[in-house]
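Subject: for your reference before the review

Hello V.,

The reviewers asked for a structural picture of the protein, and I figured it would be easier to keep everything in one thread rather than splitting it across files. Below is the amino acid sequence we used in the manuscript, unchanged from the supplementary table.
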Amino acid sequence: MNPFAAVLLLVLGSLIWTMPQRWALAAFLAGCCFTTTSQGLELGPVNLPIFRLLMLIGLVRVIVKGERIAGGMNLVDKLLIGWAIWYFISSFFHDPKLDAGTTYVCGVIYNTLVFYFLVRVWCNDIDDMADLIKLVAVILVPIALEMCMEKLTARNMFSVFGGVPENSLIREGKIRAQGPFMHPILAGTVGATCIPLFIGIYHRYRNLAIIGILAGLAMVFASASSGPVMSLMASVFAVVMWKFKYLTGMARKGFLVIYFMLMLVMQQPPYYLIARIDISGGSTGFHRSMLIEQTLKHFSEWWLFGTDYTRHWMKDQGVAASLTHTDITNHYIGIAVGSGFLGMMLIIASFYVAFRCVGKVIDTMEDTRPDHAFILWCFGASLFSHAVTSISVAYFDQSVVFLWLNVAVISSVYTVWFMQKDAVEFAEPEDFLEDEELNQAEENMKWRMSIRNRQPTPLAKNHLENDQI
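And here is what came back from the structure prediction:
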């Protein structure tokens, strides 16, 4: 760890320990964006880059200060814990020296669960999340500026930290900037998937929202990759659907009908349409389509606990970093290779339940708090973009925290909203009289916090039961 990274770790770690919860999350995201994964500590086989060390500080804070999840566990929490348990069990059926060994798997589980539950503990209010997103807009500005400079000079300034090349990647004559991330596609994906969040806060923090949108667009442009452009298109589509949200159920069914119709008329499976997408030039869409086909073809090899060898699936499509695997450019398939069919389905189920949570909260929130409803919809739009992107991108660096940020926020808002809503319905008459007297903003905040700290009422518990989500 170089001196600058060490100072940054101390500053951000101090902020995480001392600042209010939403600012602590902002400090953590800054740590993810301002350093590479090579900066950190190595303790034998255990690698602790700065973002993992910041997670550890956050975890210790939660334990020492007695912070807890409002409302207890919900179905999304249980699905992710189930996935982590199954992934850990599956690791014992893999070569410990490879990327699916127990040490590596524990790192992946740590990255996912610790950050997810930190957000669950620290995220209790849409207003807090709006404040967090305006800080994310500020955080992305220096990343966007560096990537634009990298686009012009073909030199990555983050290379001083190690972990990323000094000379930028060039494909089809186009410079592909990546900033602190391990690949240009991941850098562009972060920018594209954050844009819905900035749109969500536009009416509250117009200037910062515009700055964030411009920073996200700059990151997409500088990455010179088709994947982030498709992520951006998915983001914009999902945000626009806010005006037609009553059609989302019909849209899902329509998509399935169209897919099955394409199966009847196309010589190749419909997922080969990915091979025809080439926005930036030099796209590898055919590889991604072929990967899906080969994964289905070799189902018997990976369905139970995953597999240590996929090189024979696509013999000419390997990667220098692995002698045993082909280039797994699909997040879902990457999970399947590590933990089998059940592991992949648990992750997909967590996304599905999160989307349902968005719909359920908006159905009850839109009449009373339309501004909050739209912000939550934008978190769902960002998650939709991540879910679509995962078909053609495998997250393998700190960018994955931006995916789980959306899932955790949606999960937390769902739980807190129904607790608060139903607690009001079950409140004693004097509670309502007291509420009428709370005219000051500070007192209103205290009242909302007292509602959150209550135990779930019977009606809230019914909403939070598994079969109700």
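For the response letter, the relevant points are probably these. Residues 321 and 327 are 10 Å apart (CA to CA). The first strand starts at residue 40 and ends at 43.

Happy to draft the paragraph if you're swamped.

O.
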